Amino acid sequence: MTEIRVRPKNDGGRERLDSDTDRVVALPNVTPKRRRRYGGALLGAGVLLLLLGALGLGGWRHYQAGLAVAATEREASTFVPDVRVAAVRAADSKITVTLPATTTAFEAANIFARTSGYIEKRYVDIGDKVKAGTLLADITAPELDHQITQAKATLAQDQATLQQTQASRDLAQRTNARDSNLVQKGWLTLQQGDNDQLTLQAQQAAVGVAQSNIAAQEAQIRILEQEKAYQRVVAPFDGVITQRAIDNGSLVQSGSTFMFTLMHPDVIRTQVFVPQDQAFGLGPGVDAMVRVPEIPNRGFPGKVTRIASALQPGSRTLLTEIDVPNPDGALSPGIYCTVELFIPRKTPSMIIPADAVVFDQNGLHVAVVENGVAHMQKITIARDFGTEVEVHDGVKPGDQVILNPMVNLAEGNKVAVRNKVRTS
């Protein structure tokens, strides 16, 4: 007979010991119903304690956060930020304006043929320097010489005709004087006297016609001789030949054939268009400096000599001419250059660092420090120089403006000036 022994386990269950096999067989765990009720109550109490602890911890953290916010608000209300400031300075008395321009000759003339013919001899070429009156070319026109000879012969005929009519006039005058006495005495008829008077008047008129013909013929000869003089093409002023369009043997027509271009380079005339906002204060006598990119180490000083009376309607610019002495010929007409104009300032302006300008929903303004308090001042920018800007209003020379102001800086905030930046 097999002996079965049962012994209790530590966890409240039971196990069986088989004497034949010495194996321990676990028996089903049978817990009394009263013990299960006690375990559920303990579990509920534990969960409740955890909930209460979590609620207490959350309330404590919320309380600490409120204290931190209140402390931050108190600190913010009493915090005085350190700022860097720079002084506002007055702008210079002159505005320096740099604009593109083009050089032209002080004098330039396109020379055309004034008589028809052939180029007998050309004496100059491109680049030649000439003086006023220098012979540039000879034009030959044999038919013009024939016209002058014919005109002079016609003049001689007219002069002979004048002498003939003058003689006829003198005869008619003497005949009329002699017959008038005989008519008064009754020795000649009145009709004879009338014939003598009318003959005298006709001869006097013929003399006037002959004199007019002579005057007309003399004028025609002068025209032909002037055309003869135009056969010698001469320089109208000192300068340099910059263009040539004819050569020996070329046919030229009076008034239509282009021959040479002559320019006077000793003084260079520079034309520049000045914008409206910089034109006020500009006038004759204003200093200027012309610079050429290809001549980097040299400037050519000049002065404004003339300005247009009105601005260009399309571009709102003022045409300005500057005369630049060019005795050594370093400048040439027609090159690109830049012009620096030193224009007297008509309205006062101030210079402030660009780091002080703030642009937000309130527009452009700067923060000015006065007695440790920041004041927002609206400004109007006239010109931007990159690191600095020129303004017309909002500040005055000597004001301290805050550099790189904080985003939350507002009107009336207290600030502490820790570092003043010098402006050049």
UniProtKB/TrEMBL annotation:
Sorted UniProt keywords: Membrane, Transmembrane, Transmembrane helix
Family membership: Belongs to the membrane fusion protein (MFP) (TC 8.A.1) family.
YknX-like C-terminal permuted SH3-like domain boundaries: 352-417
All residue ranges annotated as the CusB-like beta-barrel domain in the record: 272-341
A GO molecular-function annotation: efflux transmembrane transporter activity
Domain of life: Bacteria
Boundaries of every Multidrug resistance protein MdtA-like barrel-sandwich hybrid domain copy: 108-257
PANTHER family, alphabetized: MULTIDRUG RESISTANCE PROTEIN MDTA, RAGD PROTEIN
Signal sequence, start to end: none
Name this polypeptide is given: RND family efflux transporter, MFP subunit
Annotated transmembrane regions: 41-60
Gene Ontology cellular-component annotations: efflux pump complex
